[in-house]
Design brief:
The complex is a heterodimer of chains A (862) and B (267). Among the domains of chain A are: 73-266, no CATH class; 473-542 and 724-862, no CATH class; 559-712, no CATH class. In chain A, 55% of the residues lie in helices and 16% in strands. In chain A, strands 4, 5, 6, 7, 8, 9, 10 and 11 form an eight-stranded mixed beta sheet that branches. Chain A has a six-stranded mixed β-barrel with strand order 16-17-22-19-21-20. Chain A has a four-stranded antiparallel beta sheet with strand order 3-13-1-14. In chain A, a hairpin with a 5-residue loop joins strand 20 and strand 21. The longest helix of chain A has 40 residues, at 32-71. Chain B has 267 residues and is an alpha/beta fold. Chain B has nine helices and ten strands. In chain B, strand 4 and strand 5 (88-89) form a beta hairpin. In chain B, helix 4 (121-132) packs parallel to helix 6 (163-176), helix 5 (138-148) runs antiparallel to helix 6 (163-176) and helix 6 (163-176) packs parallel to helix 7. The longest helix of chain B has 16 residues, at 193-208. Chain B is globular and about 55 Å long. The chains are: A alpha+beta (862), B alpha/beta (267). Chains A and B meet through helix 14, helix 23 and helix 26 of A and helix 3 and helix 4 of B.
């Protein structure tokens, strides 16, 4: 190390002086490899955070933009006043068609158009449903362009009742053009001719939705539940009123409206939808991404922290030399922190930018696994930079602080000793604190009954384990790695290096522990959930046949109840239970209900009733799951005050409480109770019980034959339905694994980085080895084994810790449902194997570099 | 390398040596740099190291003695001439073959930092055999360990041993594979005189009772006096040799090098 003079010789002007900031900068440049490692660790962490924020902003912007376009020209909306759900994509109940004329009579109204919105699944020429991942909308084509977000791109507006305009996305998917004949399931099949193709504003479709626009006459006949009803009235006012103008007009219109109907300013209606999307889907999405960004950042922080501490050990003698030359502790600290600041700022800025690339990549990833996100381009808000930059810089500085303090404590005399940079001492108070934290955390986790206690316990246990780790490495590492030492010189040497500094070994494995623990928690949780659902669905469906249009992706689809009725008549079917989805207010809160043919429900579905019955619920009874019963304090005989979407009220008596809710949900009512009030008459699924002696295969084929006339909804046997219903879970699991893989990459990068530093430190040892006859391959092997040891140590600790946390988490988070813990042993084995293999790979480059080292210069190095 | 056929020149050089030498250099040249800046660390050195003898190499700093030792060990390569170990010409060997030669046929004792800190004394002794995946002759190893007096220290780590003990472990390691040639680079340079004497006694014993061939580089006339023969190098050339050295005779000879104009050029 060539240390330029910091004092003394300054009497000569010809001798350049170096300032501490410049020393910091020169240090950074001198250790390019180490800097690259530190930079990468910080960049990965911040890029993930930045990517998550950019992606959710982008999606929010494009979704909000689409909604705003949708409602742009509508000044006032007249609709049903009853609100049972805030979920986007659901419609309110109908209002009388005559409302339009009442509104048209109000002064200041330039135009008022009736709007009929309903379900309209497009079926192509071959009888296949045109799949989308959003609402299947059928509506009336509105002639007034101010009130219609759709624009004709081809052809003309519909005139006859069997003419439709379709959205361009559907047209492209199914190669449709004006003049083609298609079927629209509303849900009864309507044979229609395409006369036009429309865009939603400038884009092909509104998100993943499909659109079929009939003439008003056609929509009345096919889409409206009764011809005398419409969904809403869109109003354009004279002039171009501002918000206040809209509000005043809405108030005026309200006066002429029948009871149960409301007039809402257009801007408020739009905002309502934007908020619903932001609070619902986007909030989940953002939380989800931010959580993973947080995990990545924590892993990166451990990695950065460890790298800084290794680097500081490496430079102990340099710091000591500076101290001997008269540098103060503060100057040593300042120098280390200045380095950290340079790295933190540079890497955070790079990370912020890399996040944009990551956001684009993630978007492509989501769409590749079937979760198409709307919108093009990326939104980089100032607030993203305001979050990412300080977080990245502060994490780097904090990570650098402890090693910097340590470096400043180096006694000047250390410069005169050629002591090994790696110390093996472990302070007793560290171990004691670690044991105390681990025990406290474990007790909290084991006894936790809510997520907050669980999280606190998990954090304490994690911190405790990390503190205790060095002692454990020292105590059991020797025994555990003993068998490997017999495998050859490489493993033997690696073992020695792993055990020589338990603190460093534990430090190098930390990021791996955290990463693997998180993956394990998730894997166990997902497996338990999946296994529980699978088991429950299997038990619920007595061996039968299920018709379900959509099991994964957008749920608001279904088939005509007519199909369910027809299948009931098949000789092989003993009982057909059609189930419709809906929303009501139950005792004032919005809940999702299933409405089904409950007359002989138990013939088709085994709900595992704990009390009462779910059969023959009629118009005045309801059955609830035990979960709902526990949460709402309901029991058999209790009364549920129900408010239906159309504003009708009913008191329902709880007739039964059941355990299994994976198929029928938490609230079950009868079809007859629901039918008068429903928004769309659509069976989400139908469960068919087989007649004695009937074969599932035969019945399935018969049902499929019937279903051709109804757009070919999918027909499953029991096993097929169970598999299909888990497809969505599988998709989420996959996305999460990909995200977590990034965290593991950061951990592996940290291992590679510290290994490369360690190899540099051990130049003389490696030189000695080579001098007494170690082949390059053996030097490589020893470093690769070391990396694999560290990775294996981290992975195994992570799996154990994660397994324990998951065991408790499944119990706490599944609430009243008592999901049995299911350990995906195969997946976890793969996870550990991937960690170890990753460790081997991470060691490859540092090992290759160490093996190339020139023997003579390594032996001569000091 | 036993499997490598020696080149014709090597064969003739070995024949010339009459098979009396464990190793020899023939017109060995090791030059650093080029043109005007060329420095010859070894300048036409022809030396033989007879079997079963203890040879010390002496000379002022920069005389080329360390370079000679590194070239004999196959750690450094000549720019001219030959180094022969038995009848193997080191210049014809690849990096891998040189590595195996060091492992199987040479034992090396360094001045300092001789042992791997992560291995026990016993593991350090058997390390070359572990690297070769070869079995050691247990009787021989017992003899060597007995000779260096380490039988009850085998489980200790280098950090738990004194400097002299560490160096004795290093000597045991160099002898454990029963190499054709033991090379020692100032093995007593970091030791006090008593520990130094122990280590030198060990090397002497290795020659006398175990029949080993030892070449040692040293600055110390007392250390040199343990050898059968002392070879003096100056400015990369063989300057003199002395059989049956005594410390005083060596010291007197060394003083002659310190006359003006005779100082070394390299360090």
């Amino acid at each position: 190390m060539n240390i330029p003079a910091t004092q003394g010789t300054s009497a000569h002007n010809t001798v350049a002086r170096i300032s501490l900031p410049r020393l910091a900068l020169r240090n950074l440049l001198a250790y390019k490899r180490r800097i690259a490692g530190l930079l990468i660790a910080v960049i990965l962490g911040t890029a993930f955070l930045s990517g998550a924020l950019i992606l959710s902003d982008t999606v929010q912007d494009s979704v909000s933009g689409l909604i705003r376009d949708n409602g742009a020209g509508t000044d006032v909306v007249v609709r049903n006043a009853t609100d049972v759900t805030d979920q986007p994509g659901t419609n309110r109940a109908a209002i009388p068609a005559g409302t339009t004329d009442l509104v048209r009579g109000v002064p200041g109204v330039a135009n008022a158009e009736p709007v009929i919105i309903g379900y309209g699944q497009l079926v192509d020429k071959d009888g296949k449903m045109i799949a989308g991942n959003g609402p299947r909308i059928a509506s009336n084509w509105i002639g007034d362009p101010a009130l219609n977000p759709y624009r004709l791109a081809e052809g003309r507006a519909p005139q006859g009742p069997e003419e439709v305009v379709v959205d361009r996305a559907s047209a492209r998917t199914a190669h449709l053009k004006p003049g083609d004949h298609i079927t629209v399931l509303t849900p009864a099949p309507v044979a229609a001719t395409i006369v036009g193709v429309a865009t939603f504003g400038d884009v092909d479709a509104f998100g993943g939705s499909s659109y079929a626009g009939f003439s008003l006459e056609g929509a009345r006949a096919h889409v409206a539940r009764t011809p005398g009803e419409i969904t809403s009235v869109s109003v354009r006012l004279a002039g171009d009123p501002d918000k206040a103008g809209q509000r005043a007009a809405a108030a005026t219109i309200q006066k002429v409206l029948p009871p149960g109907t409301q007039a809402l300013p257009g801007s408020d209606a739009t905002q309502e939808q934007v908020d619903a999307v932001a609070d619902g889907f986007l909030k989940v999405f953002r939380t989800f991404l931010t959580a993973f960004a947080g995990i990545a950042l924590v892993v990166a922080a451990f990695s950065i922290n460890h790298t800084f501490s290794v680097v500081s050990a490496q430079r102990t003698r340099e710091a000591a030399l500076l101290r001997a030359l008269g540098a103060s502790r503060r100057q040593i600290r300042t120098q280390a922190l200045a380095e950290a600041l340079i790295i933190g700022v540079t890497a955070s800025v790079l990370g912020l930018l890399a996040g944009a690339g990551l956001a684009a990549g993630l978007k492509a990833l989501f769409s590749a696994v079937g979760m198409e996100l709307p919108g093009t381009g990326l939104t980089l808000r100032g607030v993203t930079a305001a979050i990412v930059l300080p977080v990245g810089i502060v994490v780097t500085l904090v990570s650098a602080l402890i090693p910097a303090l340590k470096a400043s404590k180096v006694p000047p005399v250390a410069a005169l000793r050629s002591s090994a940079a790696e110390t093996s001492g472990i302070p007793a108070r560290r171990t004691i604190a670690g044991v105390a934290l681990t025990v406290a955390g474990a007790v909290l986790v084991a006894l936790a009954d809510n997520a907050l206690v669980l999280a606190a316990g998990a954090l304490a246990a994690l911190a405790g384990v990390l503190l205790v780790a060095p002692v454990v490495v020292r105590a059991v590492g020797r025994v555990l790695t003993a068998p490997f030492a017999k495998l050859g010189a490489g493993p033997m040497l690696a073992r020695g290096n792993v055990l020589r500094s338990p603190r460093r070994t534990a430090g190098a494995a930390t990021a791996m522990v955290v990463g693997i623990a998180v993956v394990t928690v998730f894997a166990v949780f997902a497996a338990s959930l999946k296994h529980g659902t699978e088991h429950e669905t299997n038990s619920t469906l007595t061996d039968g046949v299920v018709i379900a249009s959509s099991t994964g992706g957008y749920a608001g689809t279904g088939h005509s109840p007519e199909l369910t009725r027809k299948t009931a008549a098949l000789p092989g079917v003993a009982e057909a239970v059609g189930l419709q989805r809906g929303n009501i207010l139950a005792n004032g809160s919005s809940v999702a209900v299933m409405a089904g043919d409950t007359a002989h429900l138990d013939r088709a579905l085994d709900l595992d009733l704990t009390h009462g019955t779910a059969n023959a619920l009629g118009t005045d009874k309801i059955a609830v799951s035990r979960k709902a019963a526990d949460e709402d304090g309901l029991k058999v005989g209790s009364t549920v005050h129900a408010l239906y979407p159309d504003g009708a009220k009913a008191d329902l008596t709880v007739a039964g409480v059941y355990e299994r809710n994976s198929v029928v949900g938490d609230y079950l009512i009868d079809r007859t109770a629901w039918a008068p009030h429903s928004v769309a008459d659509l069976d989400a699924l139908a469960v068919l019980a087989l007649a004695p002696g009937a074969k599932a295969d035969t019945v399935k084929a018969e049902v499929e034959a019937l279903a051709t006339a109804y757009g070919n909804p999918k027909v499953y046997d029991r096993a097929g339905y169970v598999d299909a219903s888990l497809a969505l879970v599988d998709m989420f699991v996959m996305v999460v694994y990909v995200l977590l893989a990034l965290a593991l990459l950061i951990a592996l990068g940290g291992i590679a980085n510290t290994l490369s530093l360690a190899a540099h430190e051990r130049r003389r040892e490696i030189g000695l080895l080579r001098a007494i006859g170690a082949e390059r391959g053996q030097v490589r092997a020893s470093l690769r084994w070391e990396s694999a040891y560290v990775a294996a140590l981290g992975a195994l600790t992570g799996v154990l810790l994660g397994g324990f946390l998951a065991w408790s988490a499944v119990g706490v988070l599944s609430g009243a449902e008592d999901i049995p813990v299911s350990v995906p042993a195969g997946q976890l084995a793969i996870l550990v194997a991937a960690g170890v293999l990753g460790g081997l790979l991470a060691g490859t480059r540092p090992a290759a570099r160490a093996a190339k080292m020139d023997v003579l210069s390594a032996v001569a190095a000091d | 390398m036993s499997g490598t056929s020696p080149s014709p020149t090597a064969r003739s050089a070995a024949a010339e040596s009459g098979g009396r030498y464990a190793a020899c250099t023939v017109h060995a040249v090791r030059a650093y740099g080029r043109g005007d800046t060329e420095v010859r660390a070894l300048d036409d050195v022809t030396l033989g190291f007879p079997f079963g003898r203890f040879t010390a190499v002496m000379g002022p700093s920069g005389s080329g003695k360390s370079t000679l030792l590194h070239c004999l060990a196959g750690l450094d390569t000549l720019t001219g001439g030959q180094v022969l170990l038995g009848d193997t010409d080191l210049g014809t060997l690849s990096d891998k073959e040189l590595t195996r030669l060091r492992r199987d046929r040479i034992g090396f004792v360094f001045q300092a930092f001789n042992l791997l800190p992560t291995l026990t004394a016993g593991e350090n002794v058997t390390l070359p055999a572990s690297l070769a995946k070869a079995r050691l002759d247990p009787e021989w190893v017992d003899r060597v360990i007995g000779a260096v007096g380490l039988a009850n220290r085998l489980g200790h780590r280098p950090s738990e041993l004194s400097g002299g003990q560490q160096q004795r472990v290093a000597v045991a390691r160099a002898l454990a594979t029963r190499p054709e040639l033991v090379l020692a680079d100032e093995p007593t340079g970091n030791l006090d005189s008593r520990s130094g004497a122990e280590v030198l006694g060990l090397l002497r014993d290795a020659v006398d009772t175990l029949g080993q061939t030892v070449v040692m580089v040293t600055h110390d006339p007392v250390a040199a006096s343990y050898a059968d023969t002392v070879v003096f190098l100056a400015d990369g050339r063989t300057a003199d040799r002395m059989d049956g050295p005594t410390p005083q005779a060596v010291l007197d000879r060394m003083k002659a090098f310190e006359l003006p104009g005779k100082a070394g050029v390299r360090s």
